[in-house]
Predict the 3D structure of the following.
Amino acid sequence: MSAHAANTMRAILIGLALVLGSGTASAAMYKWVDEKGVVHYTDKMPPEAVDRGNVELSKQGVPIKKIDPSLTPEQRRAKEQEEERKRAIAKQQEDTARRDRALLASYTSENEIDLARQRALNAIESVMRSSAAYVESINKRKAEVQEKIATFKDRPVPPVLERERDSLNEELDRQREVPAIKRNEAAAVTAKYDADKARWREITAARAAEASAAGMTPTAVRK
């Protein structure tokens, strides 16, 4: 038997003798391990060993309370990071479950998803048509203003005409950005509804499998 094992065994025997063999023993004993791995049994914790953790034993040697060792700063940071990671995962799962419930509440078939996507795309297309018509009217008004300005030739142009011309040019610049913005919106809408459709299929397929395994209809499970 190694010296370490012998020391450990002696500590255990002494501790048990103190706990079980004396009617004058204190009401509780403490079992703790020092930095060398040696187990100790004492009637109180040495100040230098308080942070190492311990097990409080009753007079009959039954564990009644356990105190874990104090964490090092590195262990504390690791624990906090792990807890934060678990909170983030839980929140993500919560968000996914909420979106899934909303998806199932909004659509009962893939056709309904396709119709919703088309309505959204039609709304964007309508805005683009309105913008094109607006640009046409601005260009028409701009041509009229330019004609008026041209009639002044070498004479000073009235400030009101200059202001209107500048305002029309600024509005044309804004409207030129509309098609690109709306094309991006249309792409985002298409991607969103494609993702919704794929997720709807996953959820309904999983619930149909659950229903089959439970001997229920898919409709009953969805409810």
